[in-house]
């Protein structure tokens, strides 16, 4: 929930006209735009937890998958839907099934617990990237605004 709240916060903080933003200063060849990063995370949430359930995951999450979402509001809805889905699946993780094997192309072979941890890691990895995108556009990330550093 912490990772979800933070990631949704950065997705909501970026203005819609900056969803196509890609950094140019520095070594940023072939990186995803801000919107593509959001879409990638959403697609992977579905992929990880489809595999958790033994279902076929979406294809091509590296490129955002086949979901047609393009606008900020569509991408945030897709992201929220992916978190709602993953939370429903995670609610079924128990001590008894945590070590059951998971197969598939996304973070597998693994266990149900392991793929759940990878899903959280993946959110936080992309969160760190999108924080930079926000800052490059003069936007202080919501979590930093909420908990500013107090220098004495």
**Which residue ranges are poorly predicted, with pLDDT under 50 across at least 5 consecutive positions?**
none
Largest sheet: 2 strands, antiparallel
Q: Strands of the largest sheet, in order across it?
A: 1-2
Report the mean per-residue pLDDT as an integer: 91
Distance between the termini: 31 Å
Coarse shape:
globular
Order of SSEs, N→C? HHHEEHH
Number of helices: 5
Structural class assignment: mainly alpha
Give a summary of the structure in a few sentences.
With 152 residues, this protein is mainly alpha-helical.
Please tell me about this protein's structure.
- Helices cover 53% and strands 3% of the residues.
- Helix 1 (2-13) runs antiparallel to helix 3, helix 2 packs parallel to helix 3 and helix 2 runs antiparallel to helix 4 (112-136).
- It has helices at residues 2-13, 34-52, 72-90, 112-136, 142-146, and strands at residues 101-102, 110-111.
- It has 152 residues and is mostly helical.
- Strand 1 and strand 2 form a beta hairpin.
- The protein contains 5 helices and 2 strands.
- The radius of gyration is 16 Å and the shape is globular.
- The mean pLDDT is 91.
- A two-stranded antiparallel ribbon has the order 1-2.
Please tag this protein with its features.
152 residues; 3% strand; two-stranded antiparallel sheet; mainly alpha; single chain; 5 helices
Indicate the topology:
Elements: H1 2-13, H2 34-52, H3 72-90, E1 101-102, E2 110-111, H4 112-136, H5 142-146
């Amino acid at each position: 929930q912490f990772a979800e709240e933070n990631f949704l916060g950065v997705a909501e903080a970026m203005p819609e006209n900056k969803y196509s933003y890609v950094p140019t200063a520095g070594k940023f060849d072939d990186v995803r735009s801000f919107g593509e990063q959001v879409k990638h995370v959403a697609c992977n949430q579905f992929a990880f937890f489809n595999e958790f359930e033994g279902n076929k995951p979406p294809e091509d999450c590296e490129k955002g998958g086949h979901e047609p979402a393009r606008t900020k509001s569509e991408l945030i809805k897709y992201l929220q839907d992916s978190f709602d889905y993953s939370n429903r699946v995670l609610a079924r993780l128990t001590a008894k099934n945590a070590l059951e094997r998971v197969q598939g192309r996304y973070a597998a072979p693994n266990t149900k617990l392991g793929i759940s941890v990878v899903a959280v890691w993946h959110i936080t990895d992309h969160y760190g990237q999108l924080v930079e995108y926000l800052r490059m556009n003069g936007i202080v990330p919501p979590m930093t605004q909420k908990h500013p550093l107090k220098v004495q």
